[in-house]
């Protein structure tokens, strides 16, 4: 099973430093979720891990070798990444999109094989979108489209999947649908999955390992019950909260404490 880690990693854009001297080991075969306030560096870290952003210092290691020293095709056969709000050409069908996930496995002398076809069909089946394979992507619901993009990353047949805010702009039902799918894929295929997620309670419910980031560094990491504490939420998000046990999953459940107290307002004069 592929191992991915970061050592003394520094990342940034132009003259702005976002992440400095970060160390992280991603648990193999588990779901790791990155949480933190806006601008803390979650997506930047994911881009660094996914070889989209080149380190300023340090390195990301895939099986002990710096990922930027490996061939692009080698990395693409080991690691699949789904960016935030991906776009596709107008008129592209679901199957055509999923086929793109096989490009890293193609060779100039043999562009399509029975293995390619099998992996595409398997990805469509696992995400439950076989019936939509010949429909244009634009005609699907938000949840169905996200399943199609996930199917494309599955068709790569990589051991590691990276997803940046895969539930953005989806309604609650479709958010749960997508996260349930990722959990199922993790259990069935033992894929290592790394997700950037904003919703704290969903992160605690679906993560095996939580990484809480603050201002470009890792403030806390560990099991959800170790990271989702009122003290850590206060430090990372600047939010007072009360943590209880989710009555359905027994995972930590964050109840924000608002500064607004309805009893302070006297409406009798209205």
From TrEMBL:
GO terms for cellular component: plasma membrane
SMART domains for this protein: AAA
Topology of the protein relative to the lipid bilayer: Peripheral membrane protein
InterPro entries in the record: AAA+_ATPase, ABC_transporter-like_ATP-bd, ABC_transporter-like_CS, P-loop_NTPase, Siderophore_ABC-ATPase
Keywords on record: ATP-binding, Cell membrane, Ion transport, Iron, Iron transport, Membrane, Nucleotide-binding, Transport
Gene3D superfamilies named in the record: P-loop containing nucleotide triphosphate hydrolases (3.40.50.300)
Predominant subcellular localization, coarse grouping: membrane
GO molecular function list: ATP binding; ATP hydrolysis activity
GO biological process: iron ion transport
Matches recorded under Pfam families: ABC_tran
Domain ABC transporter: from-to ranges: 1-240
Compartmental location: Cell membrane
Protein name, per record: ATP-binding cassette domain-containing protein
Native source organism of the sequence: Cyanobacterium aponinum 0216
